[in-house]
Amino acid sequence: MRVRRRRTVALALGAILVLALVVVLLPGSHRDGAASGARVPAAGGPTPARVKTPTAQEQQEREYQHEDDQDAAVAAVRAYTPFVTEGGRRGHDIALTFDDGPGPYTPGVLSVLERYRVHATFFEIGAMLQWFSASTVRALHDGDVIGDHTETHPEMALLSAREQHEQLREQMARIELAGGPRPVLFRPPYGSYDATTMRELRKLHLLMVLWSDDTEDYKQPGVSAIVQRVLAGAHPGAIILLHDAGGTRTQEIQALPTIIRDLRARGYRLVTVPQLLEDDPPPPGQTLPSSLAGD
Ligand code: ZN
Questions:
Q1: Annotation says 92 is catalytic
Q2: Cis-peptide into 102, omega within 30 deg
Q3: Ligand 1 centroid to 36 CA: how many Å?
Q4: What is the CATH classification number for the domain harbouring 160?
Q5: How many CB atoms lie under 10 A from the CB of residue 92?
Q6: Could you report the per-residue pLDDT of 185-230, keeping only the tens digit for each?
Q7: Full-prediction pTM beyond 0.85?
Q8: Catalytic annotation, pick one of 149, 153, 165, 243
Q9: Overall number of domains in the chain
Q10: From the CA of 4, how far away is ligand 1's center (Å)?
Q11: Which residues share a beta bridge with 96?
Protein backbone atom coordinates (compact mmCIF):
# COMPACT_ATOMS: atom_id res chain seq x y z
CA MET A 1 0.00 0.00 0.00
CA ARG A 2 2.67 2.42 1.05
CA VAL A 3 4.76 1.41 -1.95
CA ARG A 4 1.88 2.02 -4.32
CA ARG A 5 1.17 5.43 -2.83
CA ARG A 6 4.80 6.36 -3.19
CA ARG A 7 4.71 5.24 -6.81
CA THR A 8 1.58 7.33 -7.44
CA VAL A 9 3.28 10.36 -5.90
CA ALA A 10 6.34 9.75 -8.07
CA LEU A 11 4.15 9.50 -11.19
CA ALA A 12 2.32 12.70 -10.32
CA LEU A 13 5.61 14.51 -9.72
CA GLY A 14 6.91 13.22 -13.04
CA ALA A 15 3.83 14.51 -14.85
CA ILE A 16 4.20 17.94 -13.23
CA LEU A 17 7.85 18.02 -14.25
CA VAL A 18 7.01 17.15 -17.86
CA LEU A 19 4.31 19.86 -17.93
CA ALA A 20 6.72 22.41 -16.51
CA LEU A 21 9.31 21.50 -19.12
CA VAL A 22 6.76 21.81 -21.92
CA VAL A 23 5.75 25.28 -20.70
CA VAL A 24 9.36 26.43 -20.38
CA LEU A 25 10.41 24.97 -23.72
CA LEU A 26 7.41 26.23 -25.73
CA PRO A 27 8.74 28.62 -28.35
CA GLY A 28 8.42 32.19 -27.17
CA SER A 29 6.89 31.17 -23.86
CA HIS A 30 9.80 32.35 -21.72
CA ARG A 31 10.90 35.80 -22.74
CA ASP A 32 7.67 36.68 -24.49
CA GLY A 33 5.45 34.96 -21.93
CA ALA A 34 3.12 37.92 -21.35
CA ALA A 35 2.49 38.48 -25.05
CA SER A 36 1.74 34.86 -25.87
CA GLY A 37 -0.51 34.40 -22.89
CA ALA A 38 1.51 31.61 -21.25
CA ARG A 39 1.57 31.84 -17.45
CA VAL A 40 5.30 32.19 -17.04
CA PRO A 41 6.43 34.97 -14.73
CA ALA A 42 8.63 37.57 -16.34
CA ALA A 43 12.30 36.89 -15.71
CA GLY A 44 13.65 39.03 -12.88
CA GLY A 45 17.22 39.33 -14.11
CA PRO A 46 18.68 40.63 -17.34
CA THR A 47 17.78 38.72 -20.49
CA PRO A 48 20.39 36.11 -21.46
CA ALA A 49 21.28 38.04 -24.61
CA ARG A 50 22.51 41.00 -22.54
CA VAL A 51 24.71 38.97 -20.17
CA LYS A 52 28.30 39.22 -21.29
CA THR A 53 30.18 36.08 -20.37
CA PRO A 54 33.89 36.74 -19.97
CA THR A 55 36.04 34.91 -22.47
CA ALA A 56 38.67 32.46 -21.21
CA GLN A 57 41.33 35.06 -21.91
CA GLU A 58 39.48 37.78 -19.97
CA GLN A 59 38.98 35.37 -17.08
CA GLN A 60 42.69 34.51 -17.12
CA GLU A 61 43.64 38.21 -17.21
CA ARG A 62 41.33 38.88 -14.28
CA GLU A 63 43.02 36.10 -12.30
CA TYR A 64 46.46 37.44 -13.13
CA GLN A 65 45.33 40.91 -12.04
CA HIS A 66 44.02 39.43 -8.79
CA GLU A 67 47.35 37.67 -8.23
CA ASP A 68 49.22 40.91 -8.95
CA ASP A 69 47.04 42.80 -6.46
CA GLN A 70 47.73 40.22 -3.77
CA ASP A 71 51.47 40.24 -4.51
CA ALA A 72 51.38 44.02 -4.31
CA ALA A 73 49.60 43.83 -0.95
CA VAL A 74 52.28 41.47 0.40
CA ALA A 75 55.07 43.71 -0.97
CA ALA A 76 53.44 46.77 0.62
CA VAL A 77 53.42 45.07 4.03
CA ARG A 78 56.97 43.77 3.56
CA ALA A 79 58.07 47.36 3.00
CA TYR A 80 57.44 48.14 6.69
CA THR A 81 57.67 44.77 8.45
CA PRO A 82 59.52 41.50 7.67
CA PHE A 83 56.89 39.39 9.44
CA VAL A 84 53.21 39.31 10.41
CA THR A 85 51.38 37.45 13.14
CA GLU A 86 47.96 38.78 12.12
CA GLY A 87 46.27 41.43 10.01
CA GLY A 88 44.84 44.70 11.26
CA ARG A 89 41.83 44.47 13.50
CA ARG A 90 39.58 46.74 11.50
CA GLY A 91 37.95 44.30 9.09
CA HIS A 92 36.15 40.98 9.22
CA ASP A 93 38.77 38.77 7.62
CA ILE A 94 40.25 35.64 9.13
CA ALA A 95 42.91 33.54 7.38
CA LEU A 96 42.95 29.78 7.83
CA THR A 97 46.43 28.39 7.19
CA PHE A 98 47.51 24.77 6.79
CA ASP A 99 51.08 23.56 7.26
CA ASP A 100 53.22 20.55 6.36
CA GLY A 101 51.43 19.38 3.22
CA PRO A 102 50.84 18.35 0.65
CA GLY A 103 50.05 14.91 2.02
CA PRO A 104 47.56 12.07 1.97
CA TYR A 105 44.93 14.10 3.85
CA THR A 106 45.24 17.25 1.76
CA PRO A 107 42.55 16.17 -0.76
CA GLY A 108 40.11 15.78 2.14
CA VAL A 109 40.88 19.30 3.37
CA LEU A 110 40.58 20.68 -0.17
CA SER A 111 37.22 18.98 -0.66
CA VAL A 112 35.77 20.76 2.39
CA LEU A 113 37.23 24.11 1.33
CA GLU A 114 35.82 23.62 -2.17
CA ARG A 115 32.39 22.64 -0.84
CA TYR A 116 32.20 25.84 1.23
CA ARG A 117 34.04 27.99 -1.35
CA VAL A 118 36.72 28.96 1.11
CA HIS A 119 40.21 30.00 0.03
CA ALA A 120 43.05 29.20 2.39
CA THR A 121 46.83 29.43 2.57
CA PHE A 122 48.95 26.28 2.50
CA PHE A 123 52.53 26.38 3.75
CA GLU A 124 53.97 23.42 1.93
CA ILE A 125 57.12 21.37 2.39
CA GLY A 126 58.99 21.12 -0.92
CA ALA A 127 60.01 17.46 -0.51
CA MET A 128 56.35 16.42 -0.10
CA LEU A 129 55.68 17.44 -3.69
CA GLN A 130 57.52 14.34 -4.88
CA TRP A 131 54.44 12.28 -3.98
CA PHE A 132 51.55 14.68 -3.57
CA SER A 133 52.01 17.42 -6.16
CA ALA A 134 48.48 16.76 -7.53
CA SER A 135 47.11 18.40 -4.38
CA THR A 136 49.27 21.46 -4.96
CA VAL A 137 47.99 21.77 -8.51
CA ARG A 138 44.42 21.35 -7.25
CA ALA A 139 44.88 23.98 -4.51
CA LEU A 140 46.33 26.44 -7.03
CA HIS A 141 43.42 25.79 -9.36
CA ASP A 142 41.00 26.44 -6.48
CA GLY A 143 42.56 29.86 -5.85
CA ASP A 144 44.37 28.88 -2.65
CA VAL A 145 47.76 30.41 -1.93
CA ILE A 146 50.89 28.28 -1.50
CA GLY A 147 53.62 29.55 0.81
CA ASP A 148 57.11 28.29 1.57
CA HIS A 149 57.55 25.94 4.56
CA THR A 150 61.10 24.94 3.52
CA GLU A 151 62.27 21.94 1.54
CA THR A 152 62.64 19.38 4.37
CA HIS A 153 61.12 21.05 7.49
CA PRO A 154 64.27 21.69 9.58
CA GLU A 155 64.72 24.11 12.46
CA MET A 156 66.07 27.01 10.46
CA ALA A 157 67.92 28.60 13.39
CA LEU A 158 70.22 25.55 13.53
CA LEU A 159 71.34 25.93 9.89
CA SER A 160 74.03 27.99 8.18
CA ALA A 161 73.07 30.89 5.92
CA ARG A 162 73.75 28.80 2.84
CA GLU A 163 71.63 25.90 4.10
CA GLN A 164 68.78 28.20 5.03
CA HIS A 165 68.90 29.79 1.60
CA GLU A 166 68.74 26.37 -0.07
CA GLN A 167 65.83 25.29 2.12
CA LEU A 168 63.86 28.31 0.98
CA ARG A 169 64.93 28.33 -2.65
CA GLU A 170 64.40 24.62 -3.38
CA GLN A 171 60.82 24.73 -2.16
CA MET A 172 60.13 27.83 -4.26
CA ALA A 173 61.51 26.09 -7.36
CA ARG A 174 59.25 23.08 -6.78
CA ILE A 175 56.15 25.25 -6.49
CA GLU A 176 57.04 26.98 -9.72
CA LEU A 177 57.55 23.57 -11.36
CA ALA A 178 54.06 22.58 -10.20
CA GLY A 179 52.75 25.60 -12.12
CA GLY A 180 52.34 27.94 -9.18
CA PRO A 181 53.45 31.52 -8.82
CA ARG A 182 56.71 32.00 -6.96
CA PRO A 183 55.85 31.96 -3.22
CA VAL A 184 55.92 35.33 -1.48
CA LEU A 185 55.09 34.01 2.00
CA PHE A 186 57.21 31.91 4.35
CA ARG A 187 56.34 30.10 7.55
CA PRO A 188 59.19 28.77 9.69
CA PRO A 189 58.91 25.11 10.78
CA TYR A 190 58.63 24.88 14.60
CA GLY A 191 58.55 28.69 14.62
CA SER A 192 62.36 28.51 14.43
CA TYR A 193 64.21 31.46 12.86
CA ASP A 194 67.13 33.76 13.57
CA ALA A 195 68.72 36.93 12.18
CA THR A 196 70.17 34.89 9.29
CA THR A 197 66.67 33.68 8.37
CA MET A 198 65.43 37.26 8.27
CA ARG A 199 68.33 38.24 5.97
CA GLU A 200 67.68 35.34 3.59
CA LEU A 201 63.96 36.13 3.54
CA ARG A 202 64.73 39.69 2.55
CA LYS A 203 66.95 38.50 -0.32
CA LEU A 204 64.18 36.24 -1.62
CA HIS A 205 61.40 38.83 -1.11
CA LEU A 206 59.56 36.55 1.31
CA LEU A 207 57.31 37.79 4.08
CA MET A 208 57.39 35.64 7.22
CA VAL A 209 53.87 34.66 8.28
CA LEU A 210 53.53 33.58 11.89
CA TRP A 211 50.12 33.11 13.50
CA SER A 212 47.85 34.61 16.12
CA ASP A 213 46.19 31.32 17.04
CA ASP A 214 48.01 27.99 17.40
CA THR A 215 45.29 25.34 17.63
CA GLU A 216 47.85 22.60 18.43
CA ASP A 217 45.75 20.43 16.17
CA TYR A 218 48.82 18.32 15.37
CA LYS A 219 48.50 16.79 18.85
CA GLN A 220 45.12 15.42 17.73
CA PRO A 221 43.14 16.79 20.69
CA GLY A 222 39.77 15.81 19.20
CA VAL A 223 37.39 17.43 16.74
CA SER A 224 35.52 19.59 19.25
CA ALA A 225 38.77 20.79 20.88
CA ILE A 226 40.07 21.94 17.49
CA VAL A 227 36.80 23.75 16.77
CA GLN A 228 36.86 25.37 20.23
CA ARG A 229 40.46 26.56 19.86
CA VAL A 230 39.77 28.13 16.48
CA LEU A 231 36.69 29.92 17.79
CA ALA A 232 38.55 31.05 20.91
CA GLY A 233 41.25 32.60 18.72
CA ALA A 234 38.82 34.21 16.29
CA HIS A 235 39.09 37.98 16.00
CA PRO A 236 39.34 40.38 13.04
CA GLY A 237 42.66 39.79 11.28
CA ALA A 238 43.38 36.44 12.98
CA ILE A 239 45.79 34.03 11.29
CA ILE A 240 44.94 30.52 12.42
CA LEU A 241 47.47 27.69 12.38
CA LEU A 242 46.22 24.25 11.32
CA HIS A 243 47.82 21.26 9.58
CA ASP A 244 46.83 19.21 6.56
CA ALA A 245 49.77 16.78 6.81
CA GLY A 246 52.51 15.55 9.14
CA GLY A 247 50.24 12.94 10.75
CA THR A 248 46.67 11.73 10.66
CA ARG A 249 44.47 14.71 9.80
CA THR A 250 40.97 13.27 9.98
CA GLN A 251 40.16 15.47 13.00
CA GLU A 252 40.93 18.62 11.04
CA ILE A 253 38.82 17.42 8.10
CA GLN A 254 35.91 16.67 10.44
CA ALA A 255 36.29 19.97 12.31
CA LEU A 256 36.50 22.19 9.22
CA PRO A 257 32.80 22.38 8.24
CA THR A 258 31.86 23.48 11.78
CA ILE A 259 34.77 25.92 11.90
CA ILE A 260 33.71 27.48 8.60
CA ARG A 261 30.01 27.66 9.46
CA ASP A 262 30.61 29.06 12.96
CA LEU A 263 33.10 31.71 11.82
CA ARG A 264 30.76 32.81 9.05
CA ALA A 265 27.85 32.91 11.49
CA ARG A 266 29.92 35.34 13.57
CA GLY A 267 30.31 37.59 10.53
CA TYR A 268 33.85 36.65 9.51
CA ARG A 269 35.06 36.28 5.94
CA LEU A 270 37.57 33.48 5.37
CA VAL A 271 40.38 34.63 3.11
CA THR A 272 43.95 33.86 2.11
CA VAL A 273 46.81 35.63 3.88
CA PRO A 274 47.53 37.94 0.88
CA GLN A 275 43.83 38.84 0.74
CA LEU A 276 43.85 39.58 4.48
CA LEU A 277 46.90 41.83 4.03
CA GLU A 278 45.23 43.59 1.12
CA ASP A 279 41.95 44.15 2.98
CA ASP A 280 43.30 44.87 6.43
CA PRO A 281 47.09 45.20 6.76
CA PRO A 282 48.66 45.13 10.24
CA PRO A 283 49.83 48.40 11.74
CA PRO A 284 53.59 49.11 11.60
CA GLY A 285 55.90 48.81 14.60
CA GLN A 286 55.20 45.21 15.62
CA THR A 287 57.69 43.37 17.80
CA LEU A 288 59.10 40.12 16.47
CA PRO A 289 58.33 37.32 18.96
CA SER A 290 61.59 35.84 20.27
CA SER A 291 60.29 32.29 20.52
CA LEU A 292 57.26 30.47 19.35
CA ALA A 293 55.72 27.06 19.82
CA GLY A 294 54.14 25.39 16.84
CA ASP A 295 54.95 22.77 14.29
ZN1 ZN B 1 55.50 22.59 9.90
A1: no
A2: yes
A3: 66
A4: 3.20.20.370
A5: 15
A6: 999 999 999 999 999 999 999 999 999 999 999 999 999 999 999 9
A7: no
A8: 243
A9: 1
A10: 59
A11: 240
